[in-house]
Structure formats: structure tokens, C-alpha cells
Amino acid sequence: MTSRGGYRLLDRLLQFSVKLLQNPSAIVHRLPGSSPSSHRPPMEQDTQWLYQLLADVQLEKFYLRVRDGLNITRIEHFAYVKEGDLEHIGISKPAQRRLWDALKRYKTSRNWRSGGPSGRAPDGSGGGEHNLDGGSRALPSLIQDCELVLGERLGSGSFGVVKKGEWHTPTGRVLPVAVKSLRSSMSRHAETLTDFLQEVTSMQSLDHPHIIRLYGVVLTQPLKMVTELAPLGSLYDTLRSRQYEYPLARLWLFACQIAAGMDYLETRRFIHRDLAARNVLLASKDMVKIGDFGLMRGLSHDADHYIMSAHRRIPFAWCAPESLRVGSFSHASDVWMYGVTLWEMFTYCEEPWFGLSGRQREGERLEKPPDSPQELYAVMRKCWACEPAERPDFARLIAMVTEAKPMEVQAGREFSEARKLALAPGDLVTVVEHGLEHTEWRGQNQRTLNVGWFPPCRLRRWRPRPVSCRLPAHHRPTSSAPIGSRRGGLPCTRSRAPSGRRHHLHRRGAPTWSKWPSWHVPHLSWTSTWTEKSGFAKGRSPLLCTTPETRSSRRWSTFFFF
Hints:
By secondary structure, the chain is of the alpha+beta class.
């Protein structure tokens, strides 16, 4: 060996000895064939969490100094640690910031493990409450960043981005997910981090078919929230892209589903505070789910409202008057937002109060959308009552919206006139405007999705074949009469046993909305069977529907087009 080579080897041995004395664990980690996990410094069973915490932010070399020098053996001990203490053992200020961020994430994960899921069971492999394939769900869990495969961007905001992705669960299943990532620069702001963790904490306890489900979170940088994917996007984008060409009957169905989801939040004492069409997501063409819970807050058992702190962002155009005046949010303010959301849906997501300031619209109400049925607009007006106590709760709104189902009729013959709604035999029409004061009705052809005016229907004589049902004398069919006339033929009700003349009635299947033809009366469990002896002229098919006058008394009327 040459003298120069000997000096080099000696120099390396000296450097190795000095580093070994300063930091034994860091040197051992670099030895050939060694791994960090196999040469960890000696630790007690109850302080393994401390080593893992430090290792997550590349500070594991300070494990012995933190444990022995600062006498930290429990997470609560960090509350008594000062900045100078960490500097004294060699942890720089940037490293201290990483450590404090890791502590916040660790406290959140520990709360989940103690009060939420046990172990890693987000996909139903054990430890959670339910599996994903059943009627309910597993509890949210901690997800490793390596388990996610991110795809295209779905949206972005000032706090982060939302991307489509896949979650490869520990059991091998692959689930489509939406991943909301917090920007690294924003995670250093205490307010932003608090809002992110608040949204996670709120979502982890929610379990409803019309509320977006939380699968779990990723607590490494950048922080990520993993939720179920709504593949069709937001209701706002869908309605804006298909303006004036969307089934009105489906919008009514969505209104029922949103009310059901909000009723669930109300029973759990949560205030959403940001209900709008942009935060309603399409899980399928016939199902919507409420999402975006960043502003949601829970109420204590002795509180009925939440006072917002100053300098917070809120959706002004959707807010109730009391929210704008004093920052008060409650279930009643959510009801107000629900009414504005309905208005959005039936205007195909026009901006509410566009061009008006808060002072200009004070005391005013949004005008009726042209394509909104009158009954649903009446529901919106009730949601916009000036006094919060006068607004219905969501349980009542479910009944009101269900009762306000738009009337659907069927065309019996072809109709085609300029500037009118074209109809073919058998077309179903969702009625938007109708009544005695209208010489024509307005509705949407469910086949073409066009909206327009068409001839109204006239009450005609109905004479079905006699069978087992008797009508009282004052309910017997009479000669034809216009709509609303007291001389018209009236059916039997199901509230009492009919008597008198026998009429032929057929029993249909279970009275469920999904199985009933739309031209049958949903309020009755009996529907008529038409025969050649019904008295109608050949080629004119009768048309069965309900009117506002007959709904309350559970009656039906028979109409046909001219």
C-alpha cells in the first residue's frame, strides 16, 4: 500500500469514527446490507410512536436526544417544549416547523384510531363497521400515499386541487376516488389547516346515500382527502352544458334527494353553510349527492345557530338575511340556501341576483323560473321567509317537495303547430303551467325535452265496466263537463268503502313511484281499465292525470286532446 493510499484510508476511518460518535443511527443506516429498521437505536415499547413521528419528517437521528434529553415519552409532553429546547439539542427552525406539522397530523390520526376505525379496514377487510358492498359503509381510515394513482384534474381552488384517481386498497381492490390535495404552501397556514381537518372530522361521521362518502386521508405532505367519485361531475356543470335541455321531472327527483340529504345533516346537528348547485354532485343520471363540507360546522346540544368569525369567505348570493347581517348560520339558513339551489336548478344554473348588490335585493325575492312548476316555486318562497322561525325544516320540506311533484300527462293524438310544443301519440308531458285561467298549458315533452305551450285537456265522461266496487250516488259519473265543474265525473276514494253503482277497477302492483306509469294517479292504489265501451270517440285515447283541485281530495279526472 502506498503512503498516499494509507493516508486516504486513515482519513476515512477518522471521519467515520467522528460521525459515529456524533450520530450512531445515521451511520449504521448507511452500512452495506443494513436497513434503518434493522438498526434502530434501543427504544421502549411505549415510545415507538416517537421514533416513527421523527422518522416521518427525517428527524429520527434526534430520537435519543428528544426522548432522553427532553424526557418526552408521551405526546402530551410536547405541550411543554419550547423553541429553545429543540434548538439546544440541534433541531433547526425549519426542522422544528416540520416537526410541529407532523405532531398535528399525528394527533388527528390518533383521535381516529381511538374513536373511529380500528386498524386498516377502509375497504371492509375488518376493523371497520361495514363493508363497501353492503348497504352501509366502512369507517374512514388513514391511507398511504403510495396506494393512490392520480389522474386528470376535476377542479381547483385557492386551497388546493381535486383530481380523479384510483385507490389500491390493502386487500387488492381498486376503487375510483376523488382526491382533494391541499397545496403545500397553504398547509403552513394554521387557518387553512384547521379548515381542512375540520372538513375531514365532519365527513368521517356521515353515512347517507345522498352525501358524498369519505374513504380516508393521507397525512403526509401534501395532505390529501380521499372521497368517493361522482363520475358525472357537478350538477352546476351538467345543467350549464345542457341548458334548456334537461328533464324537469328529474330535477324534481334531485330536489327530493337533496332535501333528504340535508334532513340527515339536520338530524345530526350539522350546518352545511355552502349548499349550492356547484356542491351537488351527480353519482348517476338519476342520483345526486351533497359534497364539499369545508364550511360545515356542528352545533352543540344547547345551541341552535353558529356565529361566523370575521373575515371569512361565504357565498353571499346564497346566504339568508341573518347570515349577511350578523353572520348567523343555522338549519334555517340552510333551508334558505336550499331554496336558492332549487331556483338554480330550474334556471339551468343562472347566477342568483346577478348584477344586484346586497342593498338592492334587500327584501326582494328571486323571480319564478320560466320552467319551474308553480307548486315548486311556492316551496321556494316558503324557504325564503324573512324570519328563520317561519321557514320549514327539512323534514317538512321532504313532504312539501314530494307533494309538489309536477303533473305528467300523455298525448292521445299528434299535435303540431308553429311556436307550440309538438306532440306525437304516446308522448309524456311534464306540465309546468296549468289551471282554469290558462287557455293553453305549458310543459316539457319528455321525448324531445322541448318546452312549450300545447292545448289543454277537457274533462270527459267515463263509463267503465261494472265490477266489485260500488260508488255512492253523489260520486256516480255524469255527463261531460269542463275542468273544475261540479257536474264532472268523480271517482271513488280509498278512505271509505264505496257503495252504489258497480264500476270495473283493476288492482295494480305495489304503489311505488318507480313502477307506476306516469299517467296513473300516484295518490290512489286503484287505477281504471279502459274498454271500448268507455264512451270515447274512436281514435281518441283518453288521458289520465291529477289536477291541484283533485289532489287534495284524492280524486282523478280523465282528459283527452282536441
